Amino acid sequence: MSNAKLLPLLDAEADHAVAPCCPPLTERPFTAEEAETAARMFKALGDPVRLRLFSAVASHEGGEACVCDISDVGVSQPTVSHHLKKLKEAGLLTSERRGTWVYYRVEPSVLAAMGKLLTSAPVVA
Q1: How far apart are CA 88 and CA 57, in angstroms?
Q2: Three-state secondary structure along 53-106?
């Protein structure tokens, strides 16, 4: 059993309101908890193979991809599984087993929260 924490990104019920795990980097200094959460996400994406897998899932038609469709990233299948596990542990991917295949999805809220984190805070006049 994993002791990984999922990123608290968005309220699934909120329609267009983006409430990411952390404020934009330019808004204020992170708290220790916010920094830890963001660091887990960036650490998971800091590996080129993981970034390629994350991109393959995020850009796949329908917003989800079967592992059979995204495993051609230049490493062995067990290594692909390891990297997908790391992305799941960071809260960046979800998965669902259908028969013998596993399908991965990047929730739209994850992409929205990542974008919000890296945007500038609004300028107050």
Answers
A1: 12
A2: HHHHHHHCHHHEEEHHHHCCCCCCHHHHHHHHHHHHHCCCCEEEEECCEEEEEC
Q: What is the pTM of this model?
A: 0.74
Quickly count: other Cβ atoms within 10 Å of residue 64's Cβ. 17
Provide the residue-wise pLDDT of the chain in tens; the chain has 125 residues: 444 444 444 333 333 333 456 777 888 898 998 888 888 888 999 999 999 999 999 999 888 999 988 888 889 989 999 999 999 988 899 999 999 999 999 877 778 878 888 877 666 66
Which pair of structure tokens corresponds to residue 55?
């991109």
- Asked whether the beta carbons of 83 and 49 are under 8 A apart, the reply is yes
Residue in this structure with the two tokens 């909120």, named with its chain if needed: 14
